[in-house]
User: What shape does this take?
Amino acid sequence: MSTNASLFDRAQRVIPGGVNSPVRAFRAVGGTPRFIARAEGAYLFDAEGRRYIDYIGSWGPMILGHGHPAVLDAVERAVRQGLSFGAPTEREIELAEEILKLVPSMEQVRLVSSGTEAAMSAIRLARGHTGRAKLVKFEGCYHGHADALLVKAGSGLATFGNPTSAGVPPEVVQHTLVLEYNNLEQLEEAFARHGQDIACVMIEPIAGNMNFVRAEPAFVRRLRELCTEHGALLVFDEVMTGFRVGLESAQGLYARLLPGFRPDLSVFGKVIGGGMPLAAFGGPREVMEKLAPVGPVYQAGTLSGNPVATACGLATLKEIQRPGFFESLGARTRSLVDGLLDVAREAGVPMSGDSEGGMFGFFFTGRLPRHYGEVMATDKERFSRFFHAMLDRGVYLAPALYEAGFVSAAHTEADIQATLEAAREALRAR
Ligand code: PMP
Assistant: This one.
């Protein structure tokens, strides 16, 4: 039988670092990544046959848990009808209609295959629409690995202590302004200096790439005002938060706090594909119709709107609209975070935590961080020890202190209790 270690050795010979996406390599926490053989409900099973309670959920998409019967049925049916046509299908319309029904800020949507593509395309569209070059992002927010966005990005890169990636010429990022999250002063200054040149501001409204940090309502309010005043587009990157923090996504939560609030463009991924490669960006018709083939902004994809991926996404979106879905997912996720905080308190370990819907974060510090610098100042050694102690006890948390966690509808109260028992032992063991 292959072991995780033997597979990792073999993988490193043929795949850089043995992985196809950096954070999977466990660089931030050390040790050997688990090679997953299969998954079922709330559980992952590795190559050695060990079972783990999965709090990664493929980094967000698996909101129903693994192998949900309605999703499998839809995918199996779609597979038999054809894997890819490179021509339009009715299912693409259905998925677009479903997404638009749930996201009132968008009148049109374009489907793509990854969050990276969606964020990159939204920026090109914002630049094409406004005729401006500059874009604003926030330190610790990750919007995929498009060149212009690899400026102190917070996911994976942060591990290697690299503020930017090699291979991105400085000229390519010269129009990208990076500001501190939740820092009103920097925001005001950026607009005062560059207001008429800013095409868009892109933000993760709840930043899951620095664990779990909410944009403060006053910050979002002012951001909205400044974008409107200066004619810049506000782009909400909801790749992680979309249909994950609630059926209304993060923009719906902010609209409740700030009546009438809406972003100009939105970017989705993860949950809308239910585990298949699918992402999207959308906004008002007036802006979206600047896209090819009707407008001058080019954007395309061989597998965009893929018939199997759209079937998977549609089935997933149908399930999460069942009455009470987010109430019970939110309650379960809260009980996990509350439980962790209790366990930490009993053990005399400083911890803070937060959650919304099926997304959560916890920090080894007594106060919730407000931006990237504060996240990275939390106790990394303690996090790594805790991560491994949990993994040894069959609980699979995100292998980096700057990543959010995810609970699925398949997680039971018993799974949560087993997780808390593992945490109790892990914190006692030190
Ligand atoms: N935006 C956000 C907020 C993300 O979390 C991610 C991926 N974790 C991306 C964009 C990029 O998506 P993908 O990995 O599908 O390219």
Observations:
- Residues 69-319 form a domain with the Aspartate Aminotransferase; domain 2 fold (CATH 3.40.640.10).
- The longest helix spans residues 325-347.
